[in-house]
Structures are given as C-alpha cells and as structure tokens.
C-alpha cells in the first residue's frame, strides 16, 4: 500500500492522500473499471505485450484470493502524484499514473507475453475508503501468495551499479559452491560447467593428479570414464539434500565464471588435496576488491540506500512476508536475500558469504574503517551525506527479519518491537505508519494480545490521533511485567516519545508518540546496551482517558540545564567542566578526580565506543576498560588545552578551529597570517601570534550515542544529559519498567514527558543512590 509522497520527503501533508492516481472522468464514476469487489477478492492487472513507444495497455480482472493463480506483486514508491504524470490505457479508458509507476510498467512489460501483476495504485479503487480498508486488511495475503515480489527502486543513474550487483551475485554463487564442495562424501555427482576451456582443462588435470584421494571408494566406482564434454566435468560426489540439487534431481551443476589469473596461479601452487585447490581456483574475480573498487561499491550502495523506496512504510511488510523478493534498479536485478547476505550487517548462518561491509570495508572495525568513508566523500563529485554505520540499516533489518520469519523465530513479535525497529519509515497518510506493520503481527506473532489487536486495528474511518492513541494503549497494555529470558526490552512506550515544543492542549498527550513527526526518537540518544534499572519498580502502567498512570519515584529537580550543541571537538564541554569546578558542583561524587570521571562519563553516556576493543566484527563488551581509556584521554586533552590556552579557553573554542582551517587551506604562513589578522582584528596581535604557533589538534574519541546536546545538574548534584527541551525546574524520575531516568514537567495534577535522560549515579542497580533505598518514596505518577 502506498499512500506516500516521496518527493516531499515521503511525508506529504497530514490527512492528505497525495499519491492516489487520478483516472479519467469516465473511470472516476461507477464504470466497469472499478466495480465493487466481493469479500475475499482482489483485482489483478494484466500487463499486455508491447515495447518501445507502444502505449502501456492493461486489463483488470477480479480474482479470489483463495486461488488467484500466479501473479507478481510490485513493491515501490508511487512518486509525486501532483506532477509528471503519465497515461496508460485500460481499453478505451485512460488512467493517469505517476512517472515512477509508468517506468516500472515499461521495464517489466514483455514484447510478446501478457504478464499478471498486483499493483496497489491501480488494483485498488483509491477513491473508496471502504475498499481501501478492506484491501489493506488483505495486504498480508496478497504479498504472501504472490509468486514473487519485485522491489522496484526506480531507474538507475549510477555508474557502479553493475559492479554492485555483480559482486553480490558472484560472492553468493561462490559461497553456494563452497558449501556443496565441503559437504561430506556421498553418491550425488557434482559437475562444473564453464565455457572457459583453458580453466576447465586445468581443473581436470589437477583432479586427475589427486585421483586416489578426490573421491570416496564408493563414488570412485561410479566415475568409470573420462568426461566426454570438456565444458562439463565431474569434480566430486557428495551427500546432498534434495534442496541442494538441481531442481530436486540427483546431480548438481555449478555454473562457473572463472577468474583465469587465479586459476593459473592456483595450478602452480601445492595443495594438500584436490578440494583445497578447487576452493581457491573457483574464487571469482569479485572475491577480492581493491580500495578503488570498495569506494565505487560504497558510492553505489549510498545511491541504492538513499532511494526513496526504503523510507516508505509499506515496503517493510511487503518485503518481509514475500516468499521470493527481487531487488530491481533500472536494468539491474538481484535476489534480495543475496543482496543482504553480501551488503547487510548480519552474518549468514548457513553460507560462508564474504560480506563487503563486514569483511572488505570492515565498517565496525572503527580504527581500520575510518578512512574509507572519507575517501568516498572526497572522490564524489556530489555531496554524499553518509553515515556509514546506518547506511544500510533499513535494508539490513528487512533482510534479517525475512530470515527470522522464514525460520519461525518471531513468535514473540510485538507492535512495540516493530515500531522500535522500523519507526523511521515515512508515509503521507500517518495512519499507515501503524497499519503497515499489522500484517507482520498477524503473520508471525503467536502472542494472543498481539493477534487480537491486529485483527481489528486497520480502519481508515479513524482519524490519525485515534489510531496513534489506540496503538500506544496497546503497547502499554501488552508490555510484559517482567523481562523475557532476562533480556532487555526496547519497546517501552516512552522510548518513542520526543519532546515537541509545538504540541498544544489539542494535540496528542505527551506520552503518546507522534510517530508522524518523531522519526528515530527511540534511537536518538543513550545506546545503553544493558539497562539495569527497569526492574527497580515493577511495571504497572495503565491508560485512564488521556493519562498514562504508572508508579515512579521523583529523584530531584533540575537546577542547571545547558545546551552544549553538536560539538565534535568538545570545547564547549571543557568550558562547562571548568564552570563545574569553579562553582564546586557535583560534590556528591566525592573527590575532584571522582567528579572529573562523573562529568566525562555523563557527557558520552558511558559509550566511548571507539575506545572498545574489537574481535572480528563484534565489539568486545569491555565497558570498564573503554571508560578508563576515555577518562585518560579526557584528562590528557584537558591538561593540554590548559597549557596551550591558559585563562582563555572560551577564546580557544572560537580561534582554534579557525587557525587549523587557515593552516590547512593555505600552507603559505604569511598569507594565512594576514587573513587571520583580517578576520580577527579585534583580538590582540600577540594572542594571535601565540595561538598560530601552537599545535591545536586534539584527538577526541567518537561515541556510540553521539555528542549529547543538553547537560543538566540536579539540586542533589547529579550530572546528566538529555535532548533539547529540558529546563530548570523539570524533575528527574525513575518510572516503572524503564531502563532510563526521565525528565518530566509538572502541570497541575499531572506531568508532561520532556524526554529520556542519562544520569550518572542512577543508571546501574549497584549505584549508591539505589543501594540506599527509596522504595518508600514510590508514588503514582500521572502523565498527560
């Protein structure tokens, strides 16, 4: 379903269905094109043959979803429904569709055969709310019963797309071949097929040199004569399952595209056995990539990942539930699962696939991968705003959930969990942000509360606020009182809330997420990997009208709140720490050294990620060591700054970056000096002279959560961080079921939610404040 407008940031305007295709006046009335559908029926689109300049012609026919026959479902972004529309024909009736859909129809039309599709924009009468509600309720079955789903990204316009797709296919095929070759010996013959006769001859000669060792005794008896076709040779006999053979037959043919240089090199090397030789000889040219090729692939990945398609709400369900999904961009196409195995963030558990992101670029090995993204940015003619750690997040998550769904690992799936993972999707109709995930619950979850809610939740007669409130109440009511298998939860209702200054008394209560506006609110701050205080107060939340009523403890009041901005160089933070020292704040933490540690741990919310060791692709959970390294670095930098800029640290924050920029842009010292004098003529000459001679480059460590934008201190001396919006007078509260403290603001008999906090001294169960005990101070808190 596609009530989106990607050209307007995919968001469109609230309550505006901007992307509904307009049909001719004849069709808008009650014509045969859109006769009412019987219950359980859908419309299928017959895409008639044609090519080149031929008009796009279609026919619509109804079909029972119980037995619809073979068809392909299209998953795509409509595009801007108000501009650049194109005309297609159903008999004598003209239909106006968006350009992106028109290009898709041109791409998939066959020159001689009629093809059957299901395409929401045309197969659903978009002017009928009743039909939309009915058909959206059937979306799950529509995509699960399709022979395949085509994920249409649009026309391609990137020079490296061919290499991107080719590398994925080649590496997956090698992994499949490797998996078969490494299977135990058996009686199923494995053949190599290739037109590269020179490479095939080397394989045969090498095989025959190892004849006494390359097959089992039983299999060797089956191999009684040399191969008669030089393009098809026997290389092994294996014990294979039916799904691993060719169409269930009793043999396997591996169609190879040899890297001739690698085969010639392998021929001259010495191997312990024939199969070790094979695994090296059949590696494709795409197995090893140069830095230049990696840069080209990353650039193409950025192009693919930045396509509007991935922001669309409905694609999540469409891609995950489909039995077979094909990713198509212009003339290039690939099995989506293969694409995810080679470019996603998850390791394959069955095939040993060499992953570009994890193995070549090593994007999670922070020390080794920092240079690659910068090279992409520097070599690109266009500005590429890439966050390489989140570049393929949506794509990887969809691939992961496809895998989990196919292996039946999502029996405990909840709406809150889905909103936490896919909460950044966009839709012109905000209700689709919820409705688009309902089918996943129906298809995978085995939890009664989830299934009961899913059965009746889709209703386009409800307004946006009602849909959001019902979804929020469901998340509150179905949230478990205790951890499942002692695992932390990520679907706490307030985790989706972000303080919004524009909210007024007529909008949603502060505890109900405005999913249409708060993209990524659940992931913005504090990537705490092991929440500990969520069990301090047993979860007991319930909804009473517009109020969320739950147990909590008010820790204290905010007495200082400072915006420290997005400061990668930490100069604001150093100035702020000096203020803390001058005013003797934070004495609750103990000595000056203890206060120093507390301040800098609060600044990064205990997540100095690049200080952690890595083991392969995983970050070793060595937080204590990482924090010690981080504090040591902070101490060294603070001392260095004090030596370079005594008594004028605030001036350093302005002057230092400018000096560094001037030095970098102009290596001619005198000219740089004159430019600096002109820009800063209000600063004494001797100060500029001194500053220009100093080494101003400090090495701060990037953090997992990003640099917090708000620093707070409570009247009890706690240091903390939060998102913008926290004010003096707000309170810090521990709420039942939550792994973080919260900032709340008193309004009459209730509080409003300002945002999630990270407070040093309140985050861990063994913190002194929790050990002292405050259970007698737990009270009922009403949020609105």
Automatic annotation (TrEMBL):
Region (Disordered): 1-26
Chain ranges of the Heterokaryon incompatibility domain: 71-173
Domain of life where this protein originates: Eukaryota
InterPro entries in alphabetical order: HET (IPR010730), HetReg/Transcr_Mod (IPR052895)
Pfam families: HET
Protein name (record): Heterokaryon incompatibility domain-containing protein
């Amino acid at each position: 379903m596609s009530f989106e407008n990607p050209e307007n940031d995919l968001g469109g305007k609230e309550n505006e269905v901007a992307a509904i295709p307009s049909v001719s006046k004849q069709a808008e009335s009650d014509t045969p094109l859109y006769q009412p559908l019987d219950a359980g029926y859908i419309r299928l689109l017959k895409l008639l043959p044609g090519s080149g300049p031929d008009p796009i012609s279609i026919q619509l026919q109804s079909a029972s979803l119980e037995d619809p026959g073979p068809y392909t479902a299209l998953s795509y972004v409509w595009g801007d429904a108000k501009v650049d529309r194109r005309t297609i024909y159903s008999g004598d009736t003209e239909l106006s569709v968006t350009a992106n859909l028109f290009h898709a129809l041109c791409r998939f039309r066959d020159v001689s055969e009629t093809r059957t599709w299901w395409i929401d924009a045309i197969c659903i009468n978009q002017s009928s709310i009743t039909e939309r509600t009915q058909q959206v309720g059937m979306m799950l079955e529509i995509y699960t019963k399709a022979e395949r789903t085509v994920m249409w990204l649009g026309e391609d316009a990137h020079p490296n797309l061919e290499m991107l797709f080719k590398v994925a296919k080649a590496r997956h095929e090698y992994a499949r071949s490797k998996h078969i070759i490494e299977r135990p010996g058996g009686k199923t013959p494995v053949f190599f097929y290739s037109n590269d006769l020179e490479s095939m001859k080397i394989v045969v000669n090498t095989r025959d040199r190892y004849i006494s060792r390359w097959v089992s005794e039983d299999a060797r008896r089956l191999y009684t004569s040399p191969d008669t076709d030089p393009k098809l040779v026997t290389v092994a006999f294996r014990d294979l399952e039916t799904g691993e053979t060719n169409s269930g037959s009793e043999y396997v043919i591996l169609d190879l595209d040899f890297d001739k240089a690698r085969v010639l090199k392998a021929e001259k090397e010495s191997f312990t056995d024939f199969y070790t030789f094979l695994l090296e000889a059949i590696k494709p040219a795409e197995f090893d990539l140069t830095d230049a090729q990696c840069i080209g692939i990353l650039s193409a990945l950025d192009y693919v990942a930045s396509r509007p398609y991935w922001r669309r709400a409905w694609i999540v369900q469409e891609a995950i539930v489909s039995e077979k999904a094909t990713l198509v961009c212009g003339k290039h196409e690939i099995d989506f699962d293969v694409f995810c195995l080679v470019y996603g963030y998850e390791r394959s558990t069955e095939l040993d696939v060499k992953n570009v992101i994890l193995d070549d670029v090593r994007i999670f090995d922070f020390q080794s991968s920092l240079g690659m993204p910068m090279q992409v940015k520097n070599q690109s003619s266009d500005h590429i705003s890439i966050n390489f750690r989140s570049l393929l997040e949506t794509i990887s998550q969809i691939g992961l959930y496809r895998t989990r769904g196919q292996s039946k690992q999502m029996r405990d799936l909840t709406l809150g969990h889905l909103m936490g993972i896919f909460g950044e999707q966009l839709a012109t109709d905000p209700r689709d942000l919820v409705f688009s995930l309902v089918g996943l619950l129906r298809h995978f979850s085995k939890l009664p509360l989830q299934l009961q809610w899913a059965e009746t939740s889709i209703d386009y007669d409800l307004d946006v606020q009602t849909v959001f409130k019902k979804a929020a109440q469901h998340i509150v009511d179905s949230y478990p009182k205790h951890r499942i298998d002692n695992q932390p939860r990520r679907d706490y209702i307030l985790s989706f809330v972000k303080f919004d200054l524009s909210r007024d008394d007529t909008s949603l209560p502060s505890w109900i997420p405005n999913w249409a506006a708060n993209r990524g609110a659940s992931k913005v701050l504090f990537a705490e990997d092991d929440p500990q205080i969520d069990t301090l107060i047993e979860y007991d939340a319930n909804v009473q009208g517009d109020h969320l009523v739950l147990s909590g403890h008010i820790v204290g009041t905010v007495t200082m709140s400072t915006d420290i901005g997005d400061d990668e160089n930490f100069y604001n933070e150093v100035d702020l720490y000096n203020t803390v020292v001058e005013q003797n704040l934070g004495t609750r933490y103990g000595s000056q050294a203890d206060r120093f540690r507390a301040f800098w741990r609060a600044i990064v919310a205990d997540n100095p990620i690049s200080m952690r060791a890595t083991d392969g692709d995983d970050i070793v959970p060595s937080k204590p060591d990482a924090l010690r390294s981080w504090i040591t670095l902070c101490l060294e930098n603070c001392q260095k700054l004090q030596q370079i800029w005594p008594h004028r640290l605030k001036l350093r924050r302005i002057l230092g970056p400018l000096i560094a920029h001037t030095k970098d842009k102009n290596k001619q010292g005198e000219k740089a000096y004159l430019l600096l004098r002109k820009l800063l003529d209000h600063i004494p000459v001797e100060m500029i002279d001194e500053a220009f001679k100093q080494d101003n480059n400090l090495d701060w460590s990037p953090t997992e959560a990003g640099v917090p934008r708000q620093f707070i201190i409570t009247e009890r001396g706690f240091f903390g961080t939060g998102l913008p919006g926290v004010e003096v007078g707000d309170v810090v509260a521990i709420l039942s079921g939550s792994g973080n403290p919260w900032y709340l603001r008193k309004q009459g008999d209730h509080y409003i939610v300002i945002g999630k906090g990270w407070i040093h001294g309140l985050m861990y169960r063994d913190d002194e404040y929790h050990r002292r005990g405050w259970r007698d101070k737990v009270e009922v808190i009403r949020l609105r």
